[in-house]
Design a protein that fits this description.
alpha+beta; Peptide Deformylase; five-stranded antiparallel β-sheet; 26% strand; binds nickel (II) ion
């Protein structure tokens, strides 16, 4: 089932999401399926719980559409992160353009650390501690930020913030159009 994606200005995007009791969470598999389906429909590579109105610490990522000869490691990168916690960030900061399904039409360069360590449960409730670098570390940090109520526009330079301010105000007022199902604050 395709879920509506909550748009900038909706208060759920600013809440700090909570860990879930994964073993007893009702319809967890269905939620995961719905999140992937919603993400694919919107041509995204990542989607976090708050973006579908949930205050739960879960996000999904699938980089396989971006796999290439240069990035063969993306081919199998379809993952579910439940109760995710980044335990370490390191490496040099890199500035790379990002977008977000909750902030349609805005793409800005965002500084992120080059390496993260993250602990999480997968869809089978197996626990993992993994290290990611480069673009994978970036996508994980972007989705992880959603769990803490942080959006990529929070990280952009003061000048760029001024440049996108009016677009963001429009979104807060519900003046936004995109070709996937959305829910605005008003
Ligand atoms: Ni996002």
């Amino acid at each position: 089932m395709i879920l509506p994606i909550y748009i900038y200005g909706h208060p759920v995007l600013r809440k700090v999401a909570q860990d879930i009791d994964a073993a007893n969470y009702p319809n967890l598999k269905e939620l995961i399926d719905n999140m992937f389906e919603t993400m694919y429909r919107a041509d995204g590579v990542g989607l976090a719980g708050p973006q579908v109105g949930l205050e739960e610490r879960i996000f999904v990522v699938d980089l396989s559409p971006m796999a290439s000869e240069e990035y063969p490691e993306f081919r199998d990168f379809k993952k579910v992160f439940i109760n995710a916690h980044i335990t370490e960030r390191s490496g040099e900061q890199e500035l790379v353009e990002e977008g977000c399904l909750s902030i349609p039409g805005i793409h800005e360069k965002v500084p992120r650390e080059g390496e993260v360590r993250i602990s999480y449960l997968d869809e089978n409730l197996q626990s993992h501690q993994e290290r990611y670098t480069g673009f994978m570390a970036r996508v994980i940090q972007h989705e992880y930020d959603h769990l803490d109520g942080i959006l990529f526009t929070d990280h952009i330079s003061p000048l760029r913030k001024r440049m996108v301010k009016s677009k963001l105000i429009h979104m807060e007022k519900g003046k936004v159009s995109c070709d996937y199902k959305i829910r605005t604050a008003r």
